[in-house]
Amino acid sequence: MTIAVIIATGRTGTGADPVPTAVLPCGDGPEAPTVLTRLCDQLATLKVPERRIVTRPDLAPALRKDGHDVIECEDTAADLREIARLTRGTTAPVVLLPGDLVANGELLSRLLVDARTVPVAGTAPGLLRVGRARVETLAELAERLAVDLFGGPPGDRPAAVPKHTAELLRLGLARDGVPVAPCPGEGLVCVRAGTEDAALAALAEAGSVDEDRIRMDAAINPGGGPVGTRTAGRAQAVTRWAAREGLTPNTVTLISLAVGLLAALWFAAGTRTGMVVGAVLFYLAFVLDCVDGQLARYRRMVSPLGAWMDAIGDRAKEYAVYAGLAVGAAAAPPDSSVHAGSVWGLAVAAMALQTVRHMVDSSGLESAPAPPPLDGRAGWAQRLLTLPIGERFALISVTAALGNARMTFAALLAWGSVAALYSLVGRIARAVAR
């Protein structure tokens, strides 16, 4: 369970009766929720029921009138000490948020759900999520900053300190060498409302965003080749249907495996019809393979078990198709266009080559990170050269439908050998450079 610490210290107006920006209205009419109420509702939807709201003593009455329990802190140093107290000894992740935040729910989901795999994630203005492994670090940093920045005489304090406590902690973590992963929010609204007009404008902008489209586009695996990326784009409609029907990613993975095995059976028939139907079914299996990954990211159901099932399923259906092609090539009549004699040697060689490629990719040979992908046509060419799964499945489908098993295996061995050499040489070179 995540603990949310909401720092509602922003104010608007002047005089003896300031208005907290956290209670600015988010809509017209007396029933319109305030900015803070809207934020708390979003957190409740994201299953973050435990919320601690920190504010200033003169702002506390307005927040309590809005229905919120608050913790009063005199200044930023008191904020830091209170955060240290709340996080000390806890085993739950902690998220820090400004009380006057207007953001799309999708962005909060990315911070709270998608960022679970990284120790610390954050984004402007003042959003910070700290995982279990770094909560104690956060508590120690908060205590230290309270002393280092605000513990001495006023003349000894730094001239420029970030106004928001969460931003101060984010910078402190970065200064201490703790990597803070960015929370991607392109196309999404994430602003602090300083006035009522700003709050209403931000709310209107957030309402105009098609969050479902952004979420679906983000579910496409960006590392695929041209064929795989375009297929994944066209598979979005199937992914939406699967999400509406409540299918799980693992269910789609099993369906994809079944379709791939059915394609292998058609290939084993040794007929032109079998080769064409098998090719169509095999590529359909790849479409479903795109869907299971998209569905996992779209529904935020990514899991180690799902990743393992997906990897095993891909290998199983691909190697089953190799066997089916070899059986069909020998079973076809000698005068048939699909007859290729015994191609078991080629099938085993293709299987061995692909196994070695997977072994190299997962061996950890490369101690330095891979270079960033190239842009434009050079990037597409780079990805094509590595023969990723989309291009490999398309190559098998096209050559099987138009030719025979010998043509399929020859193409796989030729292109696969180049891809293996390119990947291996690149990894060795980067490891040596490291």
Please, could you describe this protein's structure?
It is a single chain. This protein is α/β, with parallel strands linked by helices. Helix 11 runs parallel beside helix 13, helix 14 packs parallel to helix 17 and helix 16 (389-402) runs antiparallel to helix 17. Strand 2 (11-12) and strand 3 (19-20) form a beta hairpin. The chain contains 17 helices and 11 strands. 58% of the residues lie in helices and 9% in strands. The strands form 3 sheets. Strands 5-4-1-6-9-8-10 form a 7-stranded mixed sheet. The radius of gyration is 28 Å and the shape is elongated. The model has no long low-confidence stretch (mean pLDDT 88). It has helices at residues 35-45, 60-65, 76-87, 105-112, 132-150, 165-175, 196-207, 211-218, 226-234, 236-244, 249-267, 272-298, 304-331, 344-361, 376-385, 389-402, 405-433; strands spanning 3-7, 11-12, 19-20, 50-55, 70-72, 94-98, 101-103, 120-123, 127-130, 181-182, 190-192.
By helix and strand content, what is the structural category?
Answer: alpha/beta
Mean pLDDT: 88
| Cα-based radius of gyration, to the nearest Å | 28 Å
Give the termini separation: 40 Å
Tell me about the biggest sheet?
7 strands, mixed
3D shape: elongated
Based on the structure, what is the oligomeric state of the protein chains?
single chain
Short précis:
The chain is an alpha/beta fold. The protein has helices at 35-45, 60-65, 76-87, 105-112, 132-150, 165-175, 196-207, 211-218, 226-234, 236-244, 249-267, 272-298, 304-331, 344-361, 376-385, 389-402, 405-433, and strands at residues 3-7, 11-12, 19-20, 50-55, 70-72, 94-98, 101-103, 120-123, 127-130, 181-182, 190-192.
